[in-house]
Structures are given as structure tokens and as C-alpha cells.
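Closing statement on the flavin-adenine dinucleotide sub-project.
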Amino acid sequence: MDLSFTPEEEAFRAEVRAWLDANLPEAWRHRGVGGYREEEDQGIQREWQRRLYEGGWLKLAWPREQGGRGATPVMRAIFDEELTRAGAPPILGRLGVTLLAPLLSVYGSEWQKQTYLEKILSGELIFCQGFSEPNAGSDLASLQTRAERRDGRWVVTGQKTWSSGAHYADRSFLLARTDPTAPPHRGIGMFLVDMHQPGVEVRPIVQMTGSGEFCEIFLSGAVVEERDLVGGPTEGWKMAMSTFGFERSGLANAPRFERAVEALAELARGRGVGDDPVVRQRVAQAKIEAHVFRVNGLRALTRAQQGQVPGPEASLTKLFWSEMDKRIQETAIAVQGLYGALGPRSSWAIDGGRWQLAWMWSQAETIYAGSSEIQRNIIAERVLGLPRGR
Ligand SMILES: Cc1cc2nc3c(=O)[nH]c(=O)nc-3n(C[C@H](O)[C@H](O)[C@H](O)COP(=O)(O)OP(=O)(O)OC[C@H]3O[C@@H](n4cnc5c(N)ncnc54)[C@H](O)[C@@H]3O)c2cc1C
């Protein structure tokens, strides 16, 4: 494990910082969790994606011959850290950029690469992820949405749920059962579905935050051309597992939690409970955990730099940061006393209700990208080698 950065890496960091200083407007910085609302701030998120794309940053890891910079894992981590440190907004097409584009660059056909990759990165086409169904979440292989081949096209029928951003997406990368007679994992395909067609209906689900950025998708005979099948007709499970690998390894970085702990300490001082021994212990514990997360991240980075692929131990990282964030946000609510019980849109809520929103969001973090229970199962069985649970 190497804790130092080379002079080239430090120069790269300085380059990223200079670019952010020149291109990230002050008003877009540090709004944090809940500071960006899907409905109200789509314009900013779209424009930010365009700027990153034009700056060449969304192709950082791509090989030079494909217009990228061939960045090492350490350079990518530095870039992510600097974005977080600067308080940059999320990009609108993040699912396409972080999950689908890397998948297509490995498994996509030449036509798919030519047609989609640049448009995904630039934000010209926004993709949502159509995996989960009302009865298929953790147990994704039990999904029931069907895709049938008719006259050289695929016809898709079924229901998806919890699809983030489906209400403004142009396309979905969606899993559907192509062979009902095959064992569950073997009879699934992945399709790129046009969301603007008569066979697709999207209904946003209003959450406890008051926003509706997750949706149900109803598919009644949606049509997909053969060329929009990713991989083979029964290779969807392999495609899905690859996207999970990208998702779990790229979700969080240390500055996010270090910043959250600083803000928590500031909040506690501001509420006049900074010298309360219990509050002090909880804030100190949060600081220790954020540091543990940083050091563990460096270990994973060293392995990635040596060309090793993250294995099941990626579950340790996902479990740790999501549970840590819950503890940080619970402490933030607790130090507010009775104010902590206010809703995020109350005019009395401290800091405009952002702590309540962050607390609510932290509840979701231990569910998406594999719930904590699922991560614990993976750690027990595949990292520790314990017998399979019943
Ligand atoms: C913020 C957010 C964004 C999301 N975005 C998307 C999206 O864009 N596209 C998409 O397709 N999906 C999305 N999802 C859905 C997400 O993938 C599912 O919520 C997740 O897979 C869990 O599935 P489920 O909700 O059906 O819960 P279930 O799988 O029904 O689980 C219910 C409870 O049972 C536990 N459990 C389940 N199986 C086991 C087991 N074997 N052992 C022990 N405990 C178990 C779970 O941990 C959980 O506590 C999103 C979810 C969230 C919260």
C-alpha cells in the first residue's frame, strides 16, 4: 500500500483544480445532498455534464486512440476527489455515463459504440436503468418482464420500478426475460429501449422527501430493434453483473464523508452542544470512520493501480460507507433536538432542511446498489468462506 502521490499525479490534481476554478460557477458548488432537486435543477445538471464532456473529463479513462486520456485508477480517483472537494453538482446522465458507457465499450457492438457512446457522454441521450421490478429487487434473477422476438424485432411487456430519472430519460438499459424455459439467470437479455414510444408509460413515485425522481415503467408491447440488444439474447445477467461492478466500485469517495463530518461538527457547535460528551464522542467516532474509509480506499486504489480487479471485497466498501453515512446523518438529526423532527420543507428547519434530506437519502443508500443484508451475505460467503445461509 502506497500512501503518496507522484509529482505527475500532483500536477494532474493541480490541472483539475484549475479547470474547476475556471468552469464550475460558485452558485453550483457545495449544495450537497438534497441541494439539487431533480425537477428544478435538471438544466444545471445537463449543462454541467456538457462542460465536463467538452473539457474531455468524461473520457478520462478511455484509451488515447479513442479520444481519451488513458488515465490510471489513481488519476480517476484524484479527479473524483477534486469534484467532490469543489462541491460539483451531479451530472444528469450519470447512470448512462457511469454504468452503461463502460459496459458498451466492452460488450457493445460496433454499431452501438458508434451510435451511443458520444451521445451518452455529452448528455444528448439520457439513459435510465430498468432492472428492478415489484417482485424482483435483491433477487433480480426472478424478474418477469418478457421480451419476445417477432418479425426480427423484440417486443417487451412487463413492469419496472424504482427507475431513477425515468421521467426525463430518452432510453433505458433494461433487463427482460427472453427464454422462460431457461434457469432464471440464463434466460435474460439486456435491451436499449426507446422511452419515447407508445408502448412505454412512466409514472413518478413521490417519496418521503416530497420529490418524485424514481419511477414505475409500464411496458405494453414496447418495440426494440435487434441491434439494440446488448450482448447475446441470454447474456443479460452477465451484462447486469458488469454494471454492478462499476456501480459498487465508483459510488463514494473519502472527501464526501470528511466534509460531512466537518459540517456535522459545525452544526453541533452552532446548536450549542459541541461540548456535550456524548455528542463529542459521536462526532469523533464519525471522524475516525471517515478516516478508515479513506485509508481503505487507498488500499483498493493500490490494488487497482496494480491491475487487480475488485472482487467480492467491494461489498465491504459499499457496506461500510453506506452504514457510516447513516450514522453521520442520525447524529446530525439528534444534535438538532426537537428541530430534528421537522420536515425538510418546513420554514423552521435548520439550514433549509438539508439535514433532513440528507438523513432520508442515507436510508436509501443502504438499499440501492445491493442492500446491506445482501452485502453481508456476500462478505460472509465469498470473503469469509462461511457456509451459505438458508
Ligand atoms: C435511491 C434508489 C435508487 C434506485 N434506482 C434504481 C434504478 O435506477 N433502477 C433500478 O432498476 N432499480 C433502482 N433501485 C432499486 C434497487 O435496486 C432495489 O431497491 C434493491 O435492489 C432492493 O430491492 P427491493 O427494493 O425489491 O427490496 P427486496 O429485495 O425486496 O428486499 C427487502 C428487504 O429484504 C432484505 N433481503 C432481501 N433478500 C435477502 C437475503 N437473501 N438475505 C437477507 N436479507 C435479504 C433486503 O436487504 C431488504 O432489507 C433504486 C433503489 C433506491 C433506494
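Residues 251-383 form a domain with the Butyryl-CoA Dehydrogenase, subunit A; domain 3 fold (CATH 1.20.140.10). With this model delivered, the sub-project is considered complete and its resources will be redirected to Aim 3.
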